[in-house]
Amino acid sequence: QVQLVESGGGLVQAGGSLRLSCAASGRTFSRNAMGWFRQAPGQEREFVADISWSGVSTHYVDSVKGRFTISRDNAKNTLHLQMNSLKPEDTAVYYCAAEKVEYTNYVTMNPYWGQGTQVTVSS
Question: Which residues are within 8 A (CB) of 77 and not within 5 positions of it... i.e. 6 or more apart?
């Protein structure tokens, strides 16, 4: 059974940093793109960043470019999101996603999902 377990969320002041991690189990995702999405209260889930199966290609939503960095460790089946210069508008539940199709450069619309981790940025 596939499981994606996020960790690293919490409460931080504006301008601070957090590092999210996603541990995958049940199968290897070394051949699958992975990514991060987030959902703020009353809003739809939105794309934040993803990384290709090889780690060579990354994509970010404009609002986090230059502040967030996505990375992966295929040997450990883990995904990370380094978040710097956090803003109150980054407050949301952050979800890890793993693409079901192999050898793509991005996460599509029907990935595996984690349960989410709360990130709260105070002003």
Answer: 23, 24, 25, 28, 29, 30
Nearest to 71 by CA among 57, 81, 62: 81
Tokens 């703020």, residue located? 40
Q: Which amino acid is at 103?
A: Y
Please give the backbone phi and psi of residue 40, each rounded to the nearest 5 degrees, phi first: -90, 160
Say which residue the tokens 């690293």 belong to. Answer: 8
Q: Where are the alpha helices (DSSP H) in the chain?
A: none
pLDDT of 62-109, one tens digit each? 999 999 999 999 999 999 999 999 999 999 999 999 999 999 999 987
Q: 3-class SS at 120?
A: strand
HEC assignment per residue over 55-75: CCCEEECHHHCCCEEEEEECC
Which DSSP category does 29 fall into? -
